[in-house]
Specification:
It is a single chain. It contains 15 helices and 25 strands. The longest helix is centred in the N-terminal third of the chain and has 20 residues. The chain has 505 residues and is of the alpha/beta class. Helix 1 crosses helix 7. Strand 5 and strand 6 form a beta hairpin.
Length: 505
């Protein structure tokens, strides 16, 4: 069983190592509390150590020797079963997720749906891991390429999409024939545990998937430095991602990094302003702004700037903030006290930089907000592109509105940050739309839609300080979790030397 009842009021959840639910060698646990109501204790989870990580790595290494030989279509059958189990339990999984990380139920249902979609999609790749067959330059010789698994995969995921993002990584790893050690964020271990429990129930063999909860300092570091781990897939901040790359580099393991964003919505003078306001509300305040794809910058043409700003501010002020389990709530809390303090810090930075506080700007601390980590939806106006609030990722409900005089200036402002994840333009001019699509240095681009809302069958990722060139989702994810092998079969019965011997005409 994945849990043990410690007291009448507290449930203790275990790690999953080598097919068994086991406590940490440390004997210690940490609390997981509802960010909308800290009196609500979700459960106690294992405060794991490097020893636990080593046990999980060993289990994954041993299981790999059998799992890699299971035909990919057979691996996929188990994943199809898992996808159906997730679908059957969508509502309970969403409620658990809202309770532990705060975002509203519609959003957690979407998070679970993304895990369903990804698992079904990637299971289909069990029969579609296509290689190439090509003509050889020599007679009586056959040439082809095939995908092969990499080995033990370390999966390190954030708290903002605690079931979707693990599915982006774990499911392609499994369908390619790798085994997994999964370290979720400490803020959302229950959603991770629910996902792993479903994989276990679907029939994934012992040791193929292992879950170790706890801090990155102990567990994460052990995964990064292990020579046995051959691929690390990490989603989180750029600063931590840089550390991941540095720690993993000496053992030459593959490293996939999905990191920060400072995404822009560009609103041109011919835009549908009602549509643009809707998009900016959802892009800026969905998930309380706690998305790497959040629309935290809005660049608006000066001819429509005042009209847009007035409506955007009015709509933001009207957003209902509260417990995500309440169906009337439109924006939930920050995930933790630390994240709330980061938001408060950046609001102060914006004020000191001279930006105009158009609405919000305060933590909510009284009445129904007293036991949670709530903050008002906040908009800064007349922001200069060089201000810190327009350059640095805040990961909270804070949006900077920046005026511009032309399409060209909007693109320059949009590209003028260290990140390159997502960008958007609102315009009725398709010439502008296609120019922006070409010129924005981002991995994702939207026309007449906000910067969020990726679909599982296209690559997801970014440029510059957002990523290191890999992509997840779509068939691009297979490239993270597989290696190409070129195979030559010479049936001539004699030595043939490529590029030296030439075939007779």
């Amino acid at each position: 069983m994945p849990m043990r009842t410690a007291t009448a009021k507290t449930t203790t959840f275990d790690n999953f190592i080598d097919g068994a639910w086991v406590p940490s060698a440390s004997g210690d646990t940490f609390e997981n509390r509802n960010p909308a109501n800290t009196d609500d204790l979700v459960g106690d989870f294992q405060k794991s150590t490097a020893e636990d990580a080593a046990q999980a790595i060993d289990a994954a290494r041993f299981a790999y020797e059998r799992w890699r030989l299971v035909p990919a279509p057979r691996r996929a059958e188990l994943l199809f079963r898992a996808a159906q189990l997730i679908a059957d339990r969508k509502e309970s999984l969403a409620r658990d997720m809202t309770r532990e990380m705060g975002k509203v139920l519609d959003e957690t249902r979407g998070d679970v749906q993304e895990a369903i979609d990804m698992t079904f999609f990637m299971a289909g790749e069990g029969r579609r891991q296509y290689g190439q067959t090509v003509p050889s330059e020599l007679r009586d010789k056959f040439a082809m390429s095939i995908r092969q698994p990499v080995g033990v995969s370390a999966i390190i995921t954030p708290w903002n999409f605690p079931m979707a993002i693990p599915s982006w990584k774990i499911v392609p790893a499994l369908v390619c024939g790798n085994t997994v050690v999964f370290k979720p964020a400490t803020q959302t271990p229950l959603s991770a545990l629910n996902f792993v429990r479903i994989l276990e129930e679907a029939g994934i063999p012992r040791g193929v998937v292992n879950l170790v909860t706890g801090g990155g300092g102990e567990v994460g570091s052990a995964l990064l430095v292990s020579d046995t781990v051959r691929v690390v897939s990490f989603t989180g901040s750029t600063d931590v991602g840089r550390t991941v790359a540095e720690r993993a580099g000496p053992s030459f393991k593959k490293v996939h990094l999905e990191m920060g964003g400072k995404n822009v919505v560009m609103i041109m003078d011919d835009a549908d302003l009602d549509l643009a306001v809707e998009g900016c509300l959802w892009g800026g305040f969905g998930t309380t702004g706690q998305r790497c794809t959040a629309a935290s910058r809005v660049v608006v043409h000066e001819s429509v700037y005042k009209t847009f700003l007035e409506e955007f501010v009015a709509r933001a002020r009207a957003l209902r903030v509260g417990d995500g389990l309440d169906p009337k709530t439109e924006m939930g809390p920050s995930v933790s006290e630390g994240q709330l303090q980061t938001v408060i810090k950046y609001v102060d930075i914006g004020l000191k930089e001279g930006a105009k506080l158009a609405c919000g700007g305060h933590a909510l601390t009284t009445g129904p907000y007293a036991r949670g980590f709530f903050h008002e939806p906040t908009i800064f106006a007349d922001v200069a592109p060089s201000m810190r609030i327009a350059q640095e990722e805040i990961f909270g409900p804070v949006v900077s509105v920046i005026p511009c005089r032309s399409f060209e200036e909007a693109v320059a402002i949009g590209n003028g940050v260290q990140y390159g994840l997502s960008a958007s333009i609102y315009t009725r001019d398709m010439n502008r739309a296609f120019s922006a699509m070409r010129d924005m240095d981002t991995g994702i681009f939207y026309v007449n839609a906000p910067t969020i809302g990726a679909e599982v069958h296209l690559p997801f990722g970014g440029t510059k300080a957002t990523g290191n060139g890999h992509r997840e989702a779509g068939t691009a994810a297979l490239d993270v979790f597989s290696e190409w092998k070129s195979v030559y079969v010479d049936f001539s019965g004699r030595l043939q030397r490529a590029q030296i011997d030439t075939a007779d005409l």
